[in-house]
Design a protein that fits this description.
Strand order of the largest sheet: 6-4-3-2-1-14-15
Strand content: 25-35%
Number of helices: 14
Helix content: 25-40%
Structural class: alpha/beta
Number of strands: 29
Shape: globular
Radius of gyration: 23 Å
């Protein structure tokens, strides 16, 4: 009843005698320039024309409009490789965002590229992350102040400090988001204080509960498509709306807020506008996208959009613990490396494969990530691991909250993730024996910075020299037709593991791919 009353008050308040702020927001575009994974929605040129229209309509009503993005605009699609990332940065500049949060995929290649982009006027973005500390000029500030239409608007940012990602920012330091954001916000005297975050929906809600310095949260990272705001009570029992607009530019969020003098900001309108194919495309943004695509083809081949196989189903890399596509990827690494076992986390891969004709670009987008924008992409690595350590790795991974996949191995775990049975190629695992394990360059890099996993998977780590995307392309071309019935199979099982995961880091369970 308490939240029903709050919801009613937010949406039925009078706007007479008060200034109105319109916030247009997006998050987790991941360099999906032309369209989203489902091909029915998205496209940055359409996003731009939609935002321009909404701002124009707001101007006619006397509203003040700002544009915000909650981060992860870069790494995540093969497009990011074009021009060493410059096209993704230039496109965000052309979109007209007032403030952009720094996402973990925006520092995935380290501090040096941020320094490089910050030095170029056409690529220097208004980035924010109060918990990002670097002695280099990266253009990342704790927050930004916007003066517009007589309003002083404070926008403070934070990025995720999860162990899985924060080492990527080295030598920069990422600290606790709550503490850093609270400190910056407490120093601001503004008409409204907006937290622009890249930490995920549930951490956003926890941040609100523990502070009284935030009026609105515009978030990202967990890829939630929130058709209505989540209203959360802060520590002073004031209501704070938390919003998020999905992923890959499928929607533009519109939040209209009344700013009564001396009162709490009240949401008078909220809507996610679908970015549909019938929307006009902004010509300047479209021209830059076309230029970036030409650059991409120059690097990866003019035939990158040619059909090379057919998919009879939609395949997601991380719908559940045991995904058909995860099995395909694991088997591909296993065969290409000649290892005994293959192992990897699905959040290190792309969204999946669409139904219908598959192109080279579709296959390459299964492995779109890089820790070196000048490099060719991730390779398959191998390491020698004892059977006892391998059991511990599977048990630890099952507790992580991230879907993972294996090849050559079948395991049954108890409710408490103890290994009940584990076989490799049908033979029970010998705890004293050493097995050759294949995984991705991304996983190996992460393991080396996570002590718990490094203890079980000690170096040396040896590169096979085989690009994961090339191995996947060869595999799919050989199969010609992909269908779930020929790929699916349970490999790691515990009570409930067959069900879709549901946690803050599994946006696939909400409606989209995890961050």
């Amino acid at each position: 009843m308490r939240f029903f009353v709050a919801f009613f008050l937010f949406f039925t308040s009078s706007i007479s005698g008060a200034q109105v702020l319109q916030i247009l927001h997006s998050n987790d575009i991941h360099s999906f320039w032309e369209r989203s994974f489902d091909r029915e929605l998205g496209g940055m040129a359409r996003m731009k024309s939609l935002m321009d229209r909404l701002e124009s309509e707001g101007n006619s009503k006397g509203w003040v409009t700002i544009r915000l993005d909650s981060g992860d605009f870069s790494d995540g699609n093969l497009n990011y490789f074009a021009g060493r990332g410059m096209y993704s940065f230039q496109l965000m500049k052309l979109m007209g965002y007032d403030v952009i949060a720094l996402g973990n995929h925006d520092f995935v290649t380290g501090v040096e590229p941020l320094v490089w982009h910050a030095s170029k006027p056409e690529e220097a973005l208004p980035l924010v992350a109060a918990n990002f500390e670097s002695d280099r000029h990266t253009n990342v500030e704790p927050g930004r102040i916007i003066y517009r239409g007589g309003l002083k608007i404070a926008v403070g940012g934070v990025t995720t400090d999860e162990t899985l990602y924060k080492w990527l920012a080295l030598p920069a330091k990422i600290t606790d988001p709550q503490e850093a954001l609270d400190q910056w916000m407490s120093e601001q005297h503004a008409d409204i204080r907006i937290a622009l975050t890249h930490v995920g929906l549930y951490p956003d809600e926890e941040i609100v509960r523990r502070t009284g310095n935030i009026d609105v949260v515009v978030g990202g990272h967990s890829h939630h498509t929130l058709q209505t705001p989540h209203f959360v009570l802060n520590k002073d029992n004031k209501i704070v709306p938390v919003v998020q607009a999905g992923y890959h530019g499928r929607y533009v969020g519109q939040m209209v807020i009344q700013l009564p003098v001396g009162g709490t900001a009240q949401v008078i309108k909220y809507k996610l506008h679908p970015v549909t194919s019938d929307l006009p495309e902004d010509p300047v943004v479209k021209e830059k996208i076309d230029e970036g695509v030409r650059n991409l083809k120059a690097r990866f081949g003019q035939n990158i959009d040619n059909p090379i196989a057919e998919s009879q189903d939609i395949f997601y890399s991380s719908r559940s613990q045991n995904s058909a596509l995860g099995n395909l990827i694991a088997d591909t690494m296993l065969e290409a490396s000649g290892a005994d076992v293959s192992f990897d986390f699905s959040n290190l891969y792309g969204v999946g494969l669409p139904k219908g004709n598959l192109t080279i670009e579709d296959i390459f987008n299964l492995q779109p990530h890089t820790y070196d924008i000048n490099g060719p992409g991730w390779q398959i690595y191998v390491a020698n691991v004892t059977g006892a350590a391998l059991k511990k790795v599977v048990s630890i991974a099952s507790w992580s909250g991230y879907p993972f996949f294996v090849g050559g191995l079948v395991a049954e775990l108890s409710k408490f993730r103890h290994i009940k049975k584990m076989t490799i190629k049908g033979i029970p695992v010998d705890e004293k024996r050493t097995y050759k394990v294949a995984t991705s360059e991304g996983a190996i890099s992460g393991v080396s910075h996570i002590p718990l996993l490094k203890q079980q998977l000690p170096p040396p780590y040896i590169s096979t020299g085989i690009l994961i995307r090339d191995a996947l392309l060869s595999k799919v071309v050989a199969l010609k037709v992909l269908k779930k019935s020929s790929l699916h199979g349970l490999r790691v099982r515990w009570p409930g593991s067959e069900k879709p995961l549901n946690n803050a880091m599994c946006g696939e369970c909400n409606d989209g791919p995890p961050e």
